[in-house]
Design goal:
With 479 residues, this protein is of the alpha/beta class. 44% of the residues lie in helices and 12% in strands. The chain contains 17 helices and eleven strands. Bound molecules: pyridoxal-5'-phosphate (PLP).
């Protein structure tokens, strides 16, 4: 029997298979750009998909993984397709994909300096640069973690560490803690507060206005009521922007409310923080410089592979308190201020070098790539919204502030059912991938324009396709 370990590390096979894979991906990239719209999703029901892979798993061992790679590719959603308008993920820029391959190969964790020398230095530079973009001064600091969900939890833990002794003493039952947030906040905020032991009563959801922005006129009343109920408010969270509708909260008003009550002000800018790179759109983030902490996902609108998230602190020292703890087998000395042992400030112990992907894009393109990306996507969303508004069969849910547009087909009595059916047909047909949300309890089609190579032409085709489906159905149903 041949030495499998030798085979697994064969330079010649790696070279050959690596070239093969890159050639295949470059061909897919070219295909996606050559046609107006190709295949975006090859829909299969979960049980059928599982059966396919169970059969695959039972087959003889592979000598070359290329066939497997191609099967994975064709059975996955193509974010590079111009018909991709689904969840908030972008096709990663080529250089970022290559950077991820490099860091997979290196596999240096970042918790401890020696193991992640480059990663720790790049983390310091990238977070420092973005913190200054947000308007913070030299006291600012930050870290990179794996996803906005973990980022928001980290920031809320920092808030609690700044305002209480829970980390040492545990939660108290008298004066329970709570945080205030828009009812449109991402579900991970609710999850984070429950993980922190605050329970259902620990998240105070403030209603939104017609544009799905937090109603700042209600803040005082909600605050007073919570305090009367015996709660201690730790902080308030602004959405920039909200996930379902892409609406930006009034960060200036929330910031001044936070300051008046000495609350921690956190901004969840996981999706919309990238607008800071656009002179046209950065006013949406006005007031973010007042935040105590900010979360920004590089994998949402900054063209990197998932997951890579910055957590920024106006006072860098706030980051060091969150997880203060001794781990002597990792760090002999405990000096919480040291920037170069990233594991002291983050959840992860083995932390991937995801920072290399964003750093590569910054080194290659400066701010320009992020600026153009945001501007193209936001502009396209405006044009799409105009198209929907002008169309007699479609209703626009709100005027979009970002690249997230919600709308629905308006014909007949059963609008929820009709739109659910349209979405199912569209997904099964496979040229487009869009998603859905509920607004005021009603079912809406939801598009996030995430591929910067998508054009108005595809969006026109999307509406035409939906309309054609609905006509076909009415004929079938005899309406
Ligand atoms: C996507 C998103 C999150 C969650 O981030 P992940 O990186 O998916 O964990 C949190 N908040 C907002 C506003 C988001 O859009």
């Amino acid at each position: 029997m041949s030495n499998i370990l030798q085979t697994a590390f064969s330079p010649a096979a790696f070279r050959e298979q690596g070239h093969h894979l890159i050639d295949f991906l470059a061909d897919q990239l070219a295909n996606a750009q050559a046609v107006t719209i190709g295949h975006t999703i090859l829909w299969q029901a979960p049980d059928e998909q599982l059966a396919f892979w169970q059969a695959d798993f039972a087959r003889p061992l592979l000598t070359n993984p290329q066939e497997l790679f191609e099967a994975v590719f064709s059975r996955s959603v193509s974010l590079h397709s111009r018909g991709y308008l689904g969840h908030q993920a972008q096709p990663p820029a080529n250089a970022a994909v290559l950077a991820s391959t490099l860091t997979s190969f290196l596999n240096n964790g970042m918790a401890v300096y020696e193991m992640g020398m480059t990663g720790n230095a790049l983390e310091r530079i990238v977070t420092g640069y973005i913190a200054r973009k947000m308007g913070f001064d030299d006291d600012a600091g930050g870290l990179i973690t794996s996803g906005g969900t973990l980022g928001n939890l980290t920031a809320l833990l920092a808030a609690r560490a700044a305002k209480s002794a829970v980390w040492q003493e545990g939660n108290r039952v008298d004066n329970p803690f709570a945080v205030m947030v828009s009812e449109e906040a991402h579900y991970c905020i609710d999850r984070a507060t429950r993980i922190m032991g605050l329970g259902a009563a620990g998240i105070i959801k403030v209603p939104v206005n017609a544009h799905f922005q937090l109603r700042t006129d209600l803040l005082e009343a909600y605050y007073t009521r919570a305090v009367e109920q015996g709660k201690t408010i730790l902080g308030i969270i602004g959405c920039a922007c909200s996930t379902a509708t892409g609406s930006y909260d009034d960060l200036e008003a929330i910031g001044s409310f936070a300051r008046n009550h000495q609350l921690w002000f956190h901004v969840d800018a996981a999706h919309g923080g990238a607008a800071i790179f656009s002179p046209i759109h950065q006013s949406l983030l006005k007031g973010i410089d007042q935040a105590d902490s900010v979360v920004l996902d590089f994998h949402k609108m900054m063209l990197t592979p998932s997951v890579s998230t910055a957590v920024l602190f106006r006072r860098g020292s706030d980051a060091n308190r969150t997880f203060s703890q001794q781990a002597q087998y990792l760090w002999d000395r405990y000096d919480p201020e040291e920037w170069y042992n990233s594991g002291k400030r983050t959840f992860e112990c083995t932390k991937p070098m995801s920072v290399v992907a964003i750093y590569t894009l910054m080194r290659q393109y400066g701010d320009e790539l992020f600026k153009q990306n945001v501007e193209v996507l936001y502009e396209l969303a405006q044009e799409f919204a105009n198209l929907i508004s002008a169309h007699e069969s479609f209703e626009l849910a709100y005027q979009p502030q970002s690249n997230i547009v919600c709308f629905r087909y308006c014909f007949g009595d059963e609008l929820d059912t009709a739109n659910q059916q349209l979405l199912r047909q569209l997904t099964e047909e496979g040229r487009f991938y869009i998603v859905s949300t509920r607004l005021h309890g009603k079912f809406y089609l939801r598009t996030s324009i995430m591929n910067p190579l998508t054009t108005l032409q595809e969006l026109v085709l999307l509406l035409e396709t939906l309309e054609a489906f609905s006509k076909r159905d009415s004929i079938k149903l005899g309406v």
